[in-house]
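ingest -> fold -> write
write: protein_1
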Amino acid sequence: MAEMLTLEAFEEASEKVREVTLETKLVESPHFSAQTGNRVWLKPENMQRTGAYKVRGAYYKISTLSPDELGRGIITASAGNHAQGVAFAATRAGARSVVVMPETTPLIKVERTKHYGAEVVLHGDVYDEACDHALELAEREGYTFIHPFNDPCVSTGQGTIAMEVVQELPLVDTILVPVGGGGLACGVATFAKLYNPKIRVIGVEPEGAPSLTAALEAGHPVKLPSANTIADGTAVLEVGDKVFPYLRDNLDDIMTVPDDELVVAFLDMVENHKMIVENSGLLTVAALKHLPAENKRVVSILSGGNMDVITMSSVVQHGLIMRDRIFTVSVLLPDRPGMLVRVAQVIAEQNGNVIKLEHNQFVSTNRNAAVELRVTIEAFGTDHKEQIFDALKDAGFTPTLAQTSL
């Protein structure tokens, strides 16, 4: 077997993972190109088998195990995507697999992991607690432990993504890669620099879990006190110590993205590319607008698409509110017949669409003086929202913006 994270090893891994991976060809994005002033392509690993890139590293790692290691059964810890990759690869290799997942893991990821043949144990609130428990079980039961990111062999499998990128787009200038524990970024950055040192590789972390940023500042991996982000796949408290040297040496930059920007990026992906991308995979999409507009060839790696419908629904609602596509106004009216119709008419004349009405007669003890009307309105965006708001004022009402709850 080739030494890990060399060009030879990446080539070997690429041939191996091709046995099971689906082709995720680059998708050029006119929308993001126009928005950002660069030429943008997306690497849609959300369309990969098991819904994420993780099947690459898991399958390659399991292909290197001895019959004895396979026979003892395989255990791992994961917030979801690595879990499905390991379950799929272990089942294909005829090995038993046990996956420890945080209790906060979205139900869809738990169910799909079971579907691929793993036994699931729920333990702890975050990945790190699940991992500690998996290591205890491995010690006690003799399972072969496969780390989701802190393993150069797993990283070599993940780095096959970069190999496919340069095969399709040989003149790529910049690759954006999500960072949680660092396994994907390690493989992608190391291959890119071996292949062509001029390719810029930028890691992107959630603002609420910047484990690599903290490690780079300290010069070594450090444990964050907490991870607070909607990007559950990258909510890792400590970057892997085995992959950290590669990240330090091969990443050109590291960026952090707030959760609010992921919400807006989700809407952008659904409306412009008809793709469901989970929050961790959206890190690189949100990062696009933070790059200088230099007409560079930029590839955003969309790491996965395993998102439960309830989370999806919440993200869409918040995104519409943040984009001023849905807003609520409160209007105080005298309690007289026809006042509600007048408000509705003003909104209709401006092409606003009323989606919810609340009429509260008890806002004042003097109903003749005022009743409150709360109207939730669908608009085309900020300009249209302001147009409707101004029209209500011009019609003699005194609207105020209220919190929107759907």
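write: protein_2
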Amino acid sequence: MEYISTRGGMAPAPFSATLLEGLATDGGLAVPETMPEITLERIETWRSLNYAELATEILSFFATDIPGPELAAMCERAYREESFSPGIVPLTPISDSITLLGLSEGPTLAFKDMAMQFLGQSLEYVLRKTGRTLNIVGATSGDTGSAAEYALRGKEGVSVFMLSPQGRMSDFQRAQMYSLDDANIHNIAVEGVFDDCQNLVKAIAGDLEFKREYSVGAVNSINLGRISAQVVYYFWAWLRASDSLTAEERETFKISVTVPSGNFGNILAGHYAREMGAPIRRLVLAANENNVLDDFFRTGIYAPRTSAETHLTSSPSMDISKASNLERFIFDLLGRDPERLNAAWRELDETGRIDLSAELPRFVGEFGIQSGTSTHADRVATIRSVREESGVTIDPHTADGVKVARELLEPGVPMLVLETAKPEKFPDIVLEATGEAPGLPADLAGLLDLPQHVVKMADDEAALREFIADRALRA
């Protein structure tokens, strides 16, 4: 397996190289040169595997340049019980037709741990093997930053420069990141919204001279190592949802999956899983008030909003108006043709939008993607109703997913909703919905009282460059 760029200007490269690059050398995103195809018979052979073993099997299709025993050891370390609750990725029914896929059993109580723990292991392996250092420059709207920092803190040969928007994360999210005092972790709070942080990261990554001089890499969902690791739990979801069925029933059994989405990374992994052969009928994208992606999948017109037009909401990890990973889906939509992709991006630069309405019938018919929007009032009502009906308390992002999932149920097709975080991370909205604020787990009880280590910075590319240059690791 080798990887090419969506924009056609990068020579095919192996998995290890894409881990270190982030953005492709031509400014595009790395994608598999060909998508692996997995038969239902092969998937059935994985039924008895634990999560680490399943991850090894699926990632072996992507990381073909990493020896099998090494890959298995990475997955075993990434998904050990010391990092995740014993019931890693449990399925929890909340109604007769909707089940939560529990992805928040890791160290930062968010689904980002599922991919980031593997990425931490694989990056350390590649850096040790090549004798290189890496300076990660990333942006977070909430959970990516803490998951990356917890996965990479104290790791040799790697440092993290994580940008976050000032005042736009929950107190818990800020405390998780800013309380870390490891020498290789640098938190930067930027004046603006997540899209401003993301634009700064892209500017740094797009400057090849600076990128090479300071060995800049990425752990945002533009890093294909994260996307490939996320593919695993879609296969796990189908296997666990079909465990009680007969062999004959499994032959035609499909699930639908609803994904709360901001940067289009989590649902892109679902798209890849479906393309590979995972028996998924529908992928349902759930947006909050920053519903650029819902607009796109309903109309075929992609029109990112400005920072000033990006709403501050009670599901802050989805407060994104320009989804980086959509480029990978549009690449597939346009026949994996870099010339057509580049033309679409020129249209975006010149007009502020891309009109792909001619492709609209393919969104559901070929790719199985539907979408919907949820508001603050919807989140509150959903958290309350799920608690009343099932006794389960969910976070606001998962609530966005459940709200949209309820609207797009199909008879006879089980709907799984990807849980994105534990409700403890968002006590204010849980209190509003239920009258009770969730308490912190015992091991995190003092987190909010710890000293915080963060540098405030204007939305200033030159200042960021200077900050990185002064602190970057050198080989």
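write: annotation protein_2
The longest strand covers residues 158-165.
The chain has 20 helices and 15 strands.
pipeline exit 0
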